[in-house]
Amino acid sequence: MNIFRILGDISHLLAIIILLVKMQKSKSCAGISGKSQILFALVFTTRYLDLFTTFFSVYNTVMKVIFLICAYVTVYMIYVKFRKTFDSENDSFRLEFLLVPVTGLSFLENYSFTPLEILWTFSIYLESVAILPQLFMISKTGEAETITTHYLFFLGLYRALYIANWVWRYYTENFYDQIAVVSGVVQTIFYCDFFYLYVTKVLKGKKLSLPMPV
After folding, report:
1. Range of the domain at 141
2. How far apart are CA 208 and CA 205, in angstroms?
3. Where are the transmembrane segments (predicted)?
4. Where does residue 173 rank: exposed (0-12), middle (13-18), buried (19+ CB within 10 A)?
5. In this structure, which of 35, 87, 146, 193 has its CB flanked by the most CB atoms within 10 Å?
């Protein structure tokens, strides 16, 4: 395990904590896409089924359990605890547009045609597009709360650090996971415009706003 993966995991966990603390302190889930959070919960569920079959390390097991718990707590807070503040009108991305092609691709492009391997592949592909409902929601409302932008920034930073992790592993271990690398690059591309706006606006104390769709 190298420093890039550890920092990536920390960034990922920090993003989730920022989101949970934001909802708990404001008693609201306004501006947060419940659909994106459902997809992330599905990502962790299908990826971490190996918790019941394989032990890698204490660190690996603890992080998997934490991410699973946080994912379902987030979904619970949006759809149960703070459901009255949930903006269902703007959280209108059609999930089948992501789930259907991702499911098909996971059956066509995988390393081994076994249930656990297909589900792991499905989780990798799905994670690369799971943020789209959140970005779509922001594009519909035209703006995002500062705390939500911090969440997105650390989520994007996690993916960028994992790309560095793959580069490091390629040169030090001669390890290359094509499915994970390609999916990670695709996911990072989705964050590029957001990163630019984050640096030029949010870090200067301005509110992140986008042109309203016609």
Report:
1. 3-203
2. 9
3. 65-82, 118-138, 150-168, 180-199
4. exposed
5. 35
